[in-house]
Amino acid sequence: MTGARVHSAKRGTAQPADGGNTVAIIGGGLAGMSAAMRLCSAGFDVTLYEAHDRLGGNASSIKRVVPGENAPKTDQQNADKTAIEQDVYPHMFCDWYDNFWDLYEHDLGRKRDDYFSPRQGVSMLRKGDAQYSRLLNNTSMEALVENMQSGLLSPAETFLLGYSMLDLAAHPFDRSSFDQLNKLDVNGFIYSRGYSTENVAEMENYILTLIWSIQSEETAAATYQNFLRHCFKFPDNSPFSWLLKGSLDKQLIAPLREELEKRGCRIETGATVSTVRLCDDRPKIRWKRNPADKRAHVNSYDYLVMAVGPAALTSLVMGGDEHTSEGKRLISCEQSLSQLQRMSAVPIPVVDVYFKHKLDLFPKDHVGLGGSKYGLTVLDISQLWSDHDFDGKTAIIIAASDAASIPSASCNGQGWLMLQELKEFYPGINIGKHWRDPDCDIDWHRTNARSNVDYPLFLNSVGSWGWRPEAAYPNTMPRVFFAGDLCRTDVDMATVEGAVQSGFQAAKALQKRDAALTGKGIRGPEIRVIAHTTYSTASFRAAKLMLMPLAYGALAMTAYDQWKAHLAEGATPLGKAEFSLSEYLLLVPMQFTMDWLKGAYWLVRALSDGGEDDPLKTGILYKALPPVGDGDGEHRGQTGAADGDAAGLHAGDDGHEDHVIDLGAATLMALGECASYASKHLSGDMKKADGTPVSPAVAAAGSVLGAAANIGGTIISALQKQGGSATDPYIRRWRAKR
Ligand SMILES: Cc1cc2nc3c(=O)[nH]c(=O)nc-3n(C[C@H](O)[C@H](O)[C@H](O)COP(=O)(O)OP(=O)(O)OC[C@H]3O[C@@H](n4cnc5c(N)ncnc54)[C@H](O)[C@@H]3O)c2cc1C
């Protein structure tokens, strides 16, 4: 231990010292570990407290010891035993998780390709179907066309689904000015669109339920907008996400722990912190090592980072008696934290199913079971975990995103119901007649049902932005910092990246505060938080305007198809149709005109005033920033300057010229993608996909577009060299694409 403050678990006390560098971090999830990593590197003396005997929280794995393969039923005590790891859930790590990749690749020194497997999207299976539909991230023309042909919805409605997401990404939300608008939910947003249909709204609800366990009418539209903006990259040839080739513990958490210990972090697992108090601003914690400790320990620190989930945070901030000799409660110092009580989180029931033999039923992607009443997803880990020996047999993980719809309170009860629903989609699987029925395809020794009740998933419900803690409260609690996926970050949605970014933000804010309090300057190397690169607001709005005629055309096609179907059923033309003739003929064109004019207005605002309405300006979402010239070709380095005086976030220079240049660059990139798709599919041997020849004019048009896009790329490249403008991500992707 190197800090100025001497503290000891045995004595349970600590000696205060001015200018000390001791930090307690409560919570050993990804947020707490990320904060610890950065603070240790900066030279702080860090102790990490984790209530469970394992680190990782939502991203942890449990080790289960199961009887060995040949264990006789009568002597299982002495039979050879095998330890197997079971994840809370096998996570998807999006390609744009820049802070997470920084942690993994730079801090751990691990190459992404060695430990992760890339995925372009997810698969979907409907009941009764033998074939999976694939849903890809719309990052290329190929993906767009494949999605439209996926069969999930009609091509026209699939287009409308994608368009509604683009529309949401372009919508003017401004958290600093429009408090009530921020309480708009995703479903409400979709219904307010002139082009939306019931199927589009239903599919959006299904997607949200599946990936975030929250219905679209409960999801904050502004939050979803932030997530979508990070995902929208067109064109882009990087994968949508990456899956670990092994368990979370083996490939992520254990290496993180090892590195933390190397950097001098003291890790207390099985140590639950029960109270936090402030004495003259200095944090004091009471904790107990479970279950061995008879008495609690009390330790004081110079700084404190709270990195726990909603329920634990509320209890630590508000719990206990206000008037004790141990000091003040946090809520007495910062009353806005009472809003934490509004935050909600849900457990996700999961079943690890090990089969007695190999089943060739599952693809390599995550699979969403379309129409599943429990919101089931499936992943075949035996095709993914290359570091585990499955002995040629299949093992899958089933998760229920909609836990509230499962009519059972016990883990095994939930597990059995989930298996029964799985069978409805895969009738060939024999699950037996009851949980642990030996006469079936399932190896019950290894199969396990559980739920993350101890660290449930934070829900980004409508209005929650206003309740979420900031990284720091310098005026009221200068020595206390907050991290965790529930904190305000530009990612916004509860994700691995949100957790890691929040940890870095808290560490950065702490480092800055330490410099201010000690007056000795920044301790250690300056902590960086990587700014995400997204398309500019103007680009989203321009794309929305450009594609709007197609969206309303797709609506007209949908209405026509439905109308035809009703006629075919013998109904009156307008009987059950979703669109009445008057709406179809009169209202829709009016809606289109209004929508287009409003869109044009917001585009002009984004271009002309640098985006007063633009969340990028308010520090909620980072602007695309120029790279630091570290020569590795990555767009990393510049931080959002989490200074702890606000949410710990600041936007980059977001000048008016950059908006215009960004828009030009983005337009050229999109045109280039269309041109290369056209030339790939229409030129060359001059044949269409069905083998019929195409007109030379079409191929020539494709080539001309491609050449124009090339010239545009070169011009922007030259501009970028001169001015170092914010266009870099587009240039980078442009080059990567080529
Ligand atoms: C089923 C599921 C699937 C998910 N899938 C994905 C995915 O595919 N992609 C993705 O990006 N994200 C996913 N997530 C979200 C992601 O896992 C979380 O956002 C992230 O791990 C949260 O990290 P955290 O550190 O903020 O919080 P947590 O992981 O909740 O960590 C908090 C820690 O604090 C500890 N703690 C609590 N109280 C105390 C106390 N009093 N004293 C000491 N310690 C305490 C807890 O034990 C816990 O370890 C998923 C989450 C779940 C539940």
Automatic annotation (TrEMBL):
Stored InterPro entries: Amino_oxidase, FAD/NAD-bd_sf, Zeta_carotene_desat/Oxidored
Species the sequence originates in: Allopontixanthobacter confluentis
SUPFAM superfamilies with a match to the protein in the record: FAD/NAD(P)-binding domain
Residue span of region Disordered: 60-79
Pfam families: Amino_oxidase
GO molecular function: oxidoreductase activity
Protein's name according to its UniProt entry: FAD-dependent oxidoreductase
Transmembrane segments: none
Family annotation (PANTHER family): PROTOPORPHYRINOGEN OXIDASE
Amine oxidase domain segment(s): 30-510
